[in-house]
Amino acid sequence: MMKEFKEFIAQGSVMDAAIGFVLGLAFKAIVDSVVNDILMPIVGYLTAGIDFAHLKIVLKQAVPDVSEEVAITYGQLIQSIITFLIVAFFLFLVVRTLNKLRRKKEEEAKEVVEEPTESELDLLKDIRELLSSDEKTKE
Description:
The protein is mainly α. It contains 4 helices and 2 strands; from the N terminus they run ααββαα. It has a single domain (2-138), classed as Non-ribosomal Peptide Synthetase Peptidyl Carrier Protein, Chain A (Orthogonal Bundle).
């Protein structure tokens, strides 16, 4: 069982997924920082100082020594949506660039089609003549 587990872990797709996961976490930290430290202060400034992270609807006020405040923190949702849109837009740009590169490579591959040499053309003509003469003899 241990041998099978080692083989499973050593597979390329598992390692690729692990690397992608780690890079995704690192990228998330960058995006969170961009959203929280750069974009949200700008949005807050443009909206007269509203900090989306603290927007909430209080359902029940906190009572000293008894319970905490019960609230719907919709500001966090707004920040999460902005983060999602930034990540989605970045991934769109990456996929778009990769598709352009792939199309360019395919077009270059189509352009590299080898033209037959003169001797190959002569050989093809001979084959065509033999086939046509063979068809005439069958008739």
